[in-house]
C-alpha cells in the first residue's frame, strides 16, 4: 500500500506515513523579565504535552529564539505528515498567543533555509510516538 495513510487506534499516524519538514516563525514582543527560552517551552508543551517529556514526539521539532532587544525572532522547524500541518501550526499559534508574557506581532509559515532543510531531514528520521 505505497503512499496510503492508515491511522492506528490511538489516533497517531502509522509510522509508514511520510513526514515532511516545515518552518513556522513569529516576531514577538517579550515582557522585560521573561526568559526567551520560555517561548520554546510553551510551543513544546503544546506539541508534546510537556516541555520535558520522555520518549518520541508525535511532531519532532526544534525551536530557536533570538531576542537581542526589541522584537524577538522565534522559529520552530517541525516534521509532520502533510495532513497534520494545519493542526501543528494551530497548536504553535495557540501557544504563542496564549501567554501574557509576550505579544505576537506576526506569526506564520515560511520557507525552510538550507540549514533547516538538513535539520528537518534529521528530525524526520526520529522514532514516531
In short:
The protein is α+β, with helices and mostly antiparallel strands and 129 residues long.
Shape: globular
Individual helix count:
3
Average pLDDT figure = 85
Number of domains: 1
- Helical proportion? 25-40%
Strand order of the largest sheet: 2-3-1-4
Q: Which sheet architecture does the biggest sheet show?
A: 4 strands, antiparallel
> What oligomeric state do the depicted chains represent?
single chain
Beta percentage is: 25-35%
Query: Termini, distance in Å?
Result: 21 Å
C-alpha Rg (nearest Å): 15 Å
Q: Which residues form runs of ≥5 with pLDDT under 50?
A: 1-16
Question: What is the SS-derived class?
Answer: alpha+beta
List how many beta strands DSSP finds.
4
Spell out the helices and strands N to C: EHEEHEH
What does this structure look like?
This protein is α+β, with helices and mostly antiparallel strands and 129 residues long. It has one domain. Helices cover 28% and strands 28% of the residues. The chain has three helices and four strands. Strand 2 and strand 3 (71-80) form a beta hairpin. Helix 1 packs across helix 2. The longest helix has 13 residues, at 85-97. The chain starts with 19 loop residues before the first strand and ends in a 5-residue tail after the last helix.
